[in-house]
Amino acid sequence: MSATETVFNKKISLCIPMYNESSIIADTAKTLHEYMSATFENYEIIFSNDGSKDGTAAIADAYVEKYPTIVKAVHKPNGGHGSGVNRGLQEATGLYYKVVDSDDWVEVDALKKVLDKLRQFTRDGKPMDMLIANYVYEHVEDNTQKVVRYRNVFPQNKVFGWDQIGRFRPSQYLLMHSVIYRTQLLRDCELELPKHTFYVDNIFAYQPLPHMQKLFYMDVDLYRYFIGRSDQSVNEKVMVTRVDQQLRVTYHMLRSHDLKQVKVKYPKLGRYMFNYLSMMVAISSILL
């Protein structure tokens, strides 16, 4: 048995950072459990409770009691979304790590396909470093959808590296919603998201990339991103009031890598990361 198999006794960890989510945690847990039970027996759900003041903790603990081999509940002082992701990563025993925000969801058929593929790689002794799938914007205001796919960027049905990718369109980036990472590589790259800071999902989808060498893309619409609420962090009026946090995240990304070195090793990845940073700086400038 390899060291990886000894440490990671689950195939995948799904982390759900939560703060005052008692109204939806039950639905989230029930949905994920039904999805996973039908497709993949060796998994865990980690409720990362970020100091909730409502009934979130009690509901999470009830699920732990009901499914002790599947569900974990981590209760920690309030530190923000990034802190919840960090703690989930510390607790994860899955070979792969995926973050699912509490008000979003995953598509069952796509999840089955993704998990079957991950299981195949593991069974063959060739685990991927990162698996990419599509995500869908679910607009609450007008009940419309927009799918973000990567058919023009990544090869399909094959393992590939950064030297084999195409060009991203200006509105097409990798987000937290589209990536599943190998857990140990996230730890190896010392990923730690800032506390009490919004928009840290940009760091999550940026900093680990040069550490990921074996990639696989599946053209399935896996993640459903619920967007359009007036109080949401990506609402324009809300973003203006949090421009300091947007800047904090941007500076963190700037410091995380020397892009000249990345470009030497992975020219196409370096170009993508430079464009991502340019987008972050542009957003900061507009908000200021």
What is the gist of this entry?
The protein has eleven helices and nine strands. By secondary structure, the chain is of the alpha/beta class. Helix 2 (25-39) packs across helix 5 and helix 9 (243-256) runs antiparallel to helix 11.
Helix content: 40-55%
Beta-strand level of the residues, as a percent range?
Answer: 15-25%
Molecular shape: globular
The average pLDDT value, as a whole number, equals: 89
Q: How would you sum up this structure, described in words?
A:
- The longest helix is centred in the C-terminal third of the chain and has 21 residues, at 267-287.
- The chain has eleven helices and nine strands.
- Strands 1, 2, 3, 4, 5, 6, 7, 8 and 9 form a nine-stranded mixed beta sheet that branches.
- The protein has 288 residues and is of the alpha/beta class.
- β1 (10-18), α2 (25-39) and β2 form a beta-alpha-beta unit.
- The protein is 40% helix and 22% strand.
Could you name the key traits of this structure?
288 residues; alpha/beta; nine-stranded mixed beta sheet; 22% strand
Please write out the topology.
Blueprint: H1 3-7, E1 10-18, H2 25-39, E2 43-50, H3 56-66, E3 71-76, H4 81-91, E4 94-99, E5 105-106, H5 108-123, E6 130-139, E7 144-148, E8 179-182, H6 183-188, H7 201-204, E9 215-227, H8 236-241, H9 243-256, H10 259-265, H11 267-287
Parallel strand pairs: 1-2, 1-4, 2-3, 6-9
Antiparallel strand pairs: 4-8, 5-9, 6-7, 6-8
Helix pairs in contact: 2-5, 9-11, 10-11
